[in-house]
């Protein structure tokens, strides 16, 4: 019975961690892209001749910001599907 309680606790804490990883990652990515986009528009208004150069760099950084979020989602899904903490607990029991 004690092993079932421990497995349930690990699954519960993992679900909370998954929500935090995905939620805070999405929040950070949205804020980062929003700040970067506003700075791009500000720079484009000040220096219109630099728009093509700035636009390429902005899309590169937007991709990197989004990739960091997707890496967090992939890690969260790994813990959701194949939880190594749960596997070690069941192997010990």
TrEMBL record:
Q: Which UniProt keywords apply?
A: ATP synthesis, Cell membrane, CF(0), Hydrogen ion transport, Ion transport, Lipid-binding, Membrane, Transmembrane, Transmembrane helix, Transport
Q: Does the keyword Membrane apply?
A: yes
CDD domains named among the record's database cross-references: ATP-synt_Fo_c_ATPE (cd18185)
| V-ATPase proteolipid subunit C-like domain: residues covered | 16-78
Q: Where is this site: Reversibly protonated during proton transport?
A: 66
A Pfam family of the record is ATP-synt_C
Q: Please list every transmembrane segment annotated in the UniProt record, as residue ranges.
A: 12-37, 58-81
Q: Which HAMAP family match?
A: ATP_synth_c_bact (MF_01396)
Function statement: Key component of the F(0) channel; it plays a direct role in translocation across the membrane. A homomeric c-ring of between 10-14 subunits forms the central stalk rotor element with the F(1) delta and epsilon subunits.
Give the protein family.
Belongs to the ATPase C chain family.
The name this protein goes by in its record? ATP synthase subunit c
The species is Frateuria flava
Query: Corresponding gene?
Result: atpE
